[in-house]
User: Fold this.
Amino acid sequence: MAMDFPASPTNGQTYTSGNVTYTWNGYAWVAGMQAFVDAPSDDGEYVRVNGVWRLAKQTLLPAAGTSAITVSVPAHAKAVEYDFHIVGSGSFNVQLQAATVGSNFHVTSGDYGVGGPYHQLTGAGAYATLPYGAGTAAVLTSGCDAPDIPSVGKGLLNVEKSGGYFIAKTLANTYYSSYSHTTTWYMALVALGKPETRLTALRWQVPTTFMAGSQIHLRWL
Assistant:
């Protein structure tokens, strides 16, 4: 942007262009300190890139008694690393849904696919594989029926298409009375078959309700 300094300035007169203020010292315009814009006050952690604040980390705290919590995908993000500590009522698993336009979440059967290996300490025992199957959400954990034992996990999801797919991978540990502890290594296809190239919002949910103490930590990449 072209700067249009005032003609015939007086000593000490200022002129601002963009976020830089200039002061006339009697014979020249001198650039002052660059105006500094603080990061948003929304409990997120921000980094400054090329003069712009970018959301880097945030924590979601699902309210007890609710069944879902949503978050918008930052415009700069290519992917998101997540880890969760979920306590649910009754028998539950942790699920993920996504939107590719605004906050219109995809909820049709076949919009998501998931499969992968798992290990149960008792019951079926040893190692086995969950065959790939489609559904209305990406299932990130096996079932849990102990409200006092949280399901914990971590993973990575690309929010921009890679090779034609939005892909999530998750490593999780859960407790179910019939199997004791179960470890899962699931791979999920998210918003399967949608033409858009970017996710706009994410929703973590449980089939029952969240209990107090549930947390989801996000790192936007």
